[in-house]
């Protein structure tokens, strides 16, 4: 009695087609027809004399569920220009599954796998990679600590320590190493100007002594009758 009441109530109070059974679909004229299976769509609705006529999805389209639709879904395109490649090819019952190319990571997942990818962050000179990028995570960077440098933004290397016989010609930075050179050369360069100065003083004194002597002799000659 309850089942009869439900059916009669449905027929009396609801619009035609809204009481179709789980594997049926309502038509535009209010009839209930059997659904088409996965991989197919409705070509013609059922009639009192025949069942639903279905047709297969064409290449580039799919249908992944029982349905009463007249159009298949378009297969997803994996755009290599945006870091994606085809992991599983689309069939008449399944959509394309995309995966990310090396050097990219997936920003958004859905039923088709990865639907949006982005290139890994490139660490700049003066930084190092703390976490390499994967297909699911971006790369992580951090600045080199004091006393270290990174020329290409990969690893941090400690500055070169100049030996006891070397002088630091150029200080290191976060992107360049210390430059060392021969310290004796610099001592020579520092001593050389002093030697030249001393030699110049001696030369001037000698020249002055000679000049004074000449003047004295000249004065004596003038005084002699």
TrEMBL record:
Keywords: Disulfide bond, Membrane, Signal, Transmembrane, Transmembrane helix
Disulfide pattern: 57-72
Gene Ontology BP term (one): defense response to Gram-negative bacterium
Intervals holding TNFR-Cys repeats: 56-98
InterPro entries: Fas_rcpt (IPR008063), TNFR/NGFR_Cys_rich_reg (IPR001368)
Record-level GO cellular component terms: external side of plasma membrane
Signal peptide start and end residues: 1-19
Residue ranges crossing the lipid bilayer per the database entry: 188-210
Protein name: TNFR-Cys domain-containing protein
């Amino acid at each position: 009695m309850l089942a009869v009441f439900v059916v009669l109530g449905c027929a009396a109070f609801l619009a035609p087609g809204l009481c179709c059974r789980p594997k049926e679909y309502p038509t535009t004229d209010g009839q209930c027809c059997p659904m088409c299976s996965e991989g197919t769509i409705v070509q013609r609705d059922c009639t009192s004399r025949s069942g639903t006529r279905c047709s297969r999805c064409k290449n580039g389209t799919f249908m992944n569920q029982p349905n009463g639709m007249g159009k298949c879904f378009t297969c997803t395109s994996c755009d290599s220009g945006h870091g994606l490649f085809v992991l599983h090819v689309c069939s008449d019952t399944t959509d394309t599954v995309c995966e990310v190319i090396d050097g990219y990571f997936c920003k958004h997942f859905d039923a088709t796998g990865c639907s949006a990818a982005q290139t890994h962050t490139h660490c700049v000179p003066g930084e190092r990679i703390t976490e390499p990028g994967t297909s699911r995570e971006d790369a992580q960077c951090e600045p080199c600590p004091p006393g270290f440098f990174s020329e290409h933004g990969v690893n941090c290397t400690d500055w070169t320590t100049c030996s006891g016989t070397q002088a630091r010609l150029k200080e290191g930075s976060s992107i360049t190493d210390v430059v060392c050179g021969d310290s004796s050369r610099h001592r020579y360069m520092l001593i050389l100007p002093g030697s030249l100065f001393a030699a110049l003083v001696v030369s001037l004194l000698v020249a002055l002594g000679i000049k004074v002597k000449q003047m004295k002799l000249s004065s004596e000659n003038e005084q002699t009758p």
